[in-house]
Design goal:
The protein has 7 helices and no strands. It is mostly helical. The chain has one domain. It is elongated and about 65 Å long.
């Protein structure tokens, strides 16, 4: 059976779930490459996204490989932690930019005279500082993709280990040959 044949014989929800997991894997791998090229490992705080990536990968495995009700619940728990880590990362990046505002060559002279809202806006938009405020959001995106793959998963409903085929209501289940 070719991949094309399998896609044709598998229900739409399963194909979409597989697509979400592929996108999550690409986002996770891309984030790991980005963190490595930025050498994001100086100090304990910079190691946090690496642990979050490991949690996304673990949630991915729990969802993609022989999912069961318990493994999907564990994946959702890991994803919740990754969301919190992502929010913390966004905060750390914005705060770092805010603290670097007075060092900016263009804004240094008038930094203290700027309004609080303006300073925060400059920090959020990376007008000042070097930390990309939305970069930690990719962790949340990857986690969201895995979370969506667990949504209404057949294994979560009946505890089965083979969610490759959903049976429409009112029909009997049959095993494909």
């Amino acid at each position: 059976m070719t991949v094309r044949d399998r896609v044709r014989t598998t229900d739409t929800a399963t194909n979409l779930r597989a697509g979400l997991l592929v996108l999550a894997a690409v986002a996770t791998a891309g984030t790991a490459i980005e963190l490595a090229t930025e050498r994001h490992w100086n100090g304990a705080v910079q190691l946090i996204p690496w642990f979050a990536l490991a949690m996304v990968a673990a949630a991915w495995v729990l969802t993609a490989w022989r999912p069961r009700r318990a493994s999907l619940a564990a994946a959702r728990t890991l994803i919740t932690v990754v969301f919190l880590v992502s929010l913390y990362g966004i905060w750390e990046h914005v705060e770092s930019n805010l603290n670097a505002g007075w060092l900016d060559a263009f804004h240094a002279a008038g930094w203290q005279s700027l309004g609080t809202g303006t300073r925060w806006w400059y920090a959020i938009t990376k007008t000042v500082g070097a930390a990309p405020p939305l970069a930690p959001g990719i962790l949340a995106q990857a986690a969201l993709l895995v979370l969506l793959a667990t949504w209404r998963h057949p294994a979560a409903a009946d505890g089965s280990t083979s969610p490759t085929r959903c049976t429409p209501p009112g029909t009997t289940s049959s095993t494909p040959t």
